[in-house]
Specification:
This protein is α/β, with parallel strands linked by helices and 356 residues long. 34% of the residues lie in helices and 23% in strands. The chain is built from 12 helices and 17 strands. Strands 2, 3, 4, 5, 10, 14, 15, 16 and 17 form a 9-stranded mixed beta sheet that branches. Strands 1, 6, 7, 8 and 9 form a 5-stranded antiparallel beta sheet that branches. Helix 4 packs across helix 5, helix 8 packs across helix 9 and helix 11 runs antiparallel to helix 12. The mean pLDDT is 97. Bound molecules: S-adenosyl-L-homocysteine. The site of S-adenosyl-L-homocysteine has 20 residues, from helix 2 and helix 3.
Length: 356
């Protein structure tokens, strides 16, 4: 049993079964035993690899995309250049390197990283040491009242979700309890449908709701409405995703989400529809990551970088392009959406908003 499992069992004995969201929060961010609080989980030696860790091209292209949106909105100065959940800081480093040549962009940018893990803040500070003036915040509420240009890659999948099942008597919330010190799922007493979008779902349905989206989305929407800007979100998930998507990953291998609290990464698919409902501003359509990167020029960038490489380095560079864009790899599992201030041009490369 992990140290965190023992603590959770004591908490369940004292307070009763907990929501899946509370369980996720403890597993990911418990100050002493939480997954992100205690390690740098990225890369081949860690538990999972993210797009910016696969290739510098991912951050370069998204950085130029965001800089284009900034330019199209009249190059406001100062503006907040924000990233949510920056991991090792690799994406922001690639954004900053790629945008060095964009006149005025660096001079106007006030870089803010929203990061809850002290361990990862230290890694980010190291990665970005040549950029003085980077600030950190625990929460999007700290984003300054000024134009906001924001990136979030694989951030929202770490936001805790609540799960509900439809039974003959109504909806029941899925809860984490234990039997003889083994964690297990149970169900609450029946309740009304927790989100009207799912009111007609049939018996046996399981749905997921991410309460944090509302708060985070409200702040981003307010900044975009009031001050201008754009927000690019990349993650896996769908439009009104259904079913149980809670997933644990340890050393690149899926495992039972209840098996080793604090030792495995826990994620859930992002429901982009609820994100779009939470962020009150104009938006693009949901666009496959592979299609977006091809439109932003990853083919040309791959060729350009390949000209300086040979042997194994060239092989892995080409493999990275394939991994980021091929529909059988990350290309269509990962989706991107952009939000932009009403009345402004969408960032380049995205599908148009189908509802506009
Ligand atoms: N964007 C990075 C890392 C993704 S992992 C990449 O693509 O490589 C998720 C990141 O979100 C980690 O940095 C983690 O510490 C952070 N995080 C998770 N929950 C958070 C929360 N509630 N508030 C702020 N940061 C959080």
């Amino acid at each position: 049993m992990t140290a965190l499992a023992a603590l959770l069992i004591r908490r369940i004995d004292a307070q009763g079964p907990m929501t899946v969201a509370d369980f996720m929060t403890e597993c990911l961010l418990h100050p002493l035993h939480g997954y992100y609080s205690t390690r740098d989980p990225f890369g081949a030696a860690g538990d999972f690899t993210t797009a910016p860790e696969i290739s510098q091209m991912f951050g370069e292209l998204l950085g130029l995309c965001l800089a284009q949106a900034w330019h199209d909105q009249g190059a406001p100065s100062p503006f907040t250049l924000a990233e949510l959940g920056p991991g090792r800081g690799t994406l922001m480093a690639d954004v900053l390197r790629a945008t060095r040549g964009v006149p005025g962009f660096h001079a106007a940018a006030r870089i803010m990283l929203v990061e809850a893990s002290a361990t990862l803040r230290a890694v980010q500070a190291q990665t970005l040491h040549s950029y003085p003036g980077v600030t950190w915040a625990n929460d999007v509420g700290a984003l300054p009242d000024q134009p906001l240009f924001l990136l979030a890659n694989e951030f929202f999948d770490a936001m805790p979700i609540r799960q509900y099942e439809r039974g003959p008597l109504g909806w029941h919330e899925r809860r984490v309890g234990h039997r003889d010190a083994v964690l297990q799922f149970g169900l609450s007493a029946p309740m009304p449908v927790p989100d009207r979008r799912f009111a007609r779902d049939p018996l046996g349905s399981l749905i997921e709701i991410c309460p944090a989206l509302d708060n985070i989305g409200a702040v981003i929407g307010q900044r975009l409405q009031q001050h201008g800007g754009a927000a690019i979100v990349v993650d896996y998930g769908g439009w009104r995703s259904r079913g149980d998507t809670l997933q644990a990953l340890c050393h690149h291998t899926p495992e039972d989400p209840l098996a080793s609290p604090g030792q495995a990464d826990l994620t859930a698919h992002v429901d982009f529809e609820s994100l779009a409902l939470a962020i009150a501003s104009s938006r693009t359509g949901l666009t496959d990551q592979g299609i977006l990167l091809e439109r932003l020029g990853i083919g040309q960038r791959t060729a350009r970088l390949a000209s300086g490489l040979s042997g194994q380095a060239l092989e892995s560079h080409r493999a990275a392009h394939h991994r980021l864009t091929d529909p059988a790899e990350m290309g269509s599992l990962f989706k991107a959406i952009a939000f932009h201030a009403p009345g402004t041009a969408p960032p380049p490369g995205f599908d148009p908003d189908p509802d506009a």
